[in-house]
From TrEMBL:
<protein>
    <submittedName>
        <fullName>Transposase</fullName>
    </submittedName>
</protein>
<dbReference type="InterPro" id="IPR002559">
    <property type="entry name" value="Transposase_11"/>
</dbReference>
<dbReference type="Pfam" id="PF01609">
    <property type="entry name" value="DDE_Tnp_1"/>
</dbReference>
<feature type="domain" description="Transposase IS4-like">
    <location>
        <begin position="2"/>
        <end position="151"/>
    </location>
</feature>
Length: 165
């Protein structure tokens, strides 16, 4: 699953790496994440918030395709339609399946399979350091996301499993 999240940037974030996301009305940065079916992070890229999803998706999808050779299908929302679908198939041998919202749905509805990445965003927002982007460099912001996911994975591994042992 691939998706993006716009977050507000702190005053220390330079104007060269921040932008205004007109859809969310956020002045800051955008986190582009790729997760597996368990909701664990496979790849992340942080850009200015005015960067389009289709343009930015090529980099994290390429990184994930190189690192995970068995990956064949990636779900995405309607913001990733267009030439990106053909590009993924030709360049990375990935099928980009668009999960679209039906016309009769009203309000905020989490679509099937999309709850996986929304759960990751909820976890990131629970991390105080990631509720707002405080990092000067985008690479530092990406490292903070990886650190937060490391904490989540170790908590899941350390959780006692009933019926074992």
């Amino acid at each position: 699953m691939i998706d993006s999240q716009s977050v507000k940037a702190d005053a220390v974030v330079g104007s060269d790496s921040r932008g205004f996301d007109g859809g969310k009305l956020v002045n800051g940065r955008k986190r582009h994440v790729v997760v597996d079916t368990l909701g664990l992070l496979l790849g992340v890229m942080v850009t200015a918030a005015d960067t389009g999803d289709r343009a930015a998706a090529q980099v994290p999808l390429g990184q994930v395709a190189d690192a995970h050779h068995r990956l064949a299908l990636v779900w995405a929302d309607g913001g990733y339609t267009g030439s990106l679908v053909e590009h993924c198939l030709a360049a990375f041998a990935l099928i980009l399946a668009i999960v679209k919202r039906s016309d009769d749905m009203r309000g905020f509805v989490v679509l099937p399979k999309r709850w996986i990445v929304e759960r990751l965003f909820a976890h990131l927002m629970r991390s105080r350091r990631l509720a707002r982007d405080y990092e000067r460099r985008t690479t530092s912001a990406e490292a903070m996301i990886y650190w937060s996911m490391t904490l989540l994975m170790t908590r899941r591994l350390a959780r006692p499993h009933p019926g074992r042992g």
